[in-house]
Every structure is written in structure tokens, then in C-alpha cells.
Amino acid sequence: MARSALLNVMVQAATKAGRALIRDFGEVEQLQVSMKGPADFVSAADHRAEKILREELQRVRPTYGLLMEESGVIEGSDPAHRWIVDPLDGTTNFLHAIPMFAVSIGLERDGEIVAGVVFNPVMNELFTAERGAGAYLNDRRLRIAQRRDLSQAVIATGVPHQGRGHHPTYLKELAAIMADAAGIRRMGAAALDLAWVAAGRFDGFFETGLNPWDVAAGMLIVREAGGYVSDYSGHGDPLNAGSIIAGNPDIHREVQRRIAAR
């Protein structure tokens, strides 16, 4: 597959950060860990990966701004472009030696995501997309699954954990979907959940309490694989809404209908 110069920059940054995470993953019990909030851990590995990403991206595009999970907003002299970066999506998985985590980079241009990379270094799976150019897993073109009936669909979700989210509301949403779905999966990394929707492994995904860096890359990958992505209202842009539903149009519509009726 042919990649633009910008996408190549993103791929190189993500793979370099991913290699660093793999080294730390092998010594996960020795990592220096601090508390960032209730059940929300941040590790030395997270900071190292973010430093690599910032250096790599700024070296090639020094005028672009950044929105990073740990460092927050870093203003650039080019107001049209911004990198949206999660150096370690799935931190809790990482710290528990669960090999489901990813590096996620989205490129925002004039308020729209135009390129995205999600890299799972353990599985060596690189998901990429550019607006209008399709989505890929390594060099294979992705197409979203076409199952139309919820009874045949496997739906991924994110469960609100300690200190975050409204548990009773979520349990009603989950019950409404779980009642008829073929299966429910909770993987613990929203960027990978979205990438797996694009790859047809999951038929749909829903979660709330998210940040832009959780979804920026994955939402474009789903769209470029032929999927539909919105916030819980069914129409809004999930980048800043804090909630997301993804799937093919039929599964998206059914999941959204049940969430709206909770």
C-alpha cells in the first residue's frame, strides 16, 4: 500500500514507541508506578512512550500542535494541524501483563481527523487510515463486518471502572444490548476495540467517558473501512462528545436505539 509522507511519519513514531513499550512490558513488575486517579494508573513506560512520540512528531512537523494524554495541550504555530496522541491505550492491561494495549496517533486538520494509526506492538498489528484512502491492517485492506442482525453480532464495550462513569446507567445499556447480542467483549483498550471493528473482528462498539486521544485514530479507521461512527445521540462527532458507537449502519442503528431507550 502507498502511504503519504505524513502517514509514514506517524507509523515510524508509533512503531518506535511500541518497541519501547515492549521492552518495558517484559519487566512490568519492576515498573515505577504512580497513581493518577482512582484505578487510573500511569507508568514510567507511558511517559517514556509519550516522550518518544512527541520528539518524533515534532522533529518532522515542528509547527503542529499536540494533544497528549499525559502532557495535555501543546500549542503549535500552525493552527490548522494537531496530533492527538495516546502513548499507551490500555494502561491497566499493560500493568497487569495483559498483552492488549496500543499506541494511538490521530492527525487533526481544521477540526477533522484526516489520518490515524493504531499499533499493537505485542501482535505486531499496525492499523492505518487516511481520509478517502481506505483503512489497512499492515498491508491488507480492511472492510467492516456486514452482519445485520444483533443476534449474530459480537459487540465490544468499555465498562466504567472505579470512580468513573455512572454504573447503574451503564448496566441498563449493557442489559439492553446483551439480551440479544451473540456476545459481549470488554478488552480494555478503546483504540484497539475500534480497530477490531474495522477489521470485522467485532461487529460494534460502544463506550462513554472517553477522551479525544482514545478515539481519534480509531474512529477514522472504522469510517475508512466502511463503518459508521457517532456519539450516543447517533448524530454527533464522538471526538469531543465523550461517547461513541461504531459499527456497520445496521448494527450501529440498533445499538444506538437501545442506548437511547435505556
Describe the structure.
By secondary structure, the chain is of the alpha+beta class. It has two domains: 137 residues, Fructose-1,6-Bisphosphatase, subunit A, domain 1 (Fructose-1,6-Bisphosphatase, Chain A, domain 1, 2-Layer Sandwich), CATH 3.30.540.10; 111 residues, D-Maltodextrin-Binding Protein, domain 2, CATH 3.40.190. The protein is built from eight helices and 15 strands. The protein has an eight-stranded mixed β-sheet, sandwiched between helices. It is globular. The N and C termini lie far apart (43 Å). The mean pLDDT is 92.
Name of the level-1 CATH class of the largest domain: Alpha Beta
Shape: globular
Count of separate DSSP helical elements:
8
Give the low-pLDDT segments.
none
CATH-scheme architecture of the largest domain: 2-Layer Sandwich
Number of strands: 15
- What proportion of the residues form beta strands (DSSP E)? 25-35%
* Helix-strand pattern: HEEHEEEHEEEEEEHEHEHEHEH
Straight-line N-to-C gap:
43 Å
Summarize the structure.
This protein is of the alpha+beta class and 262 residues long. 35% of the residues lie in helices and 29% in strands. It contains 8 helices and 15 strands.
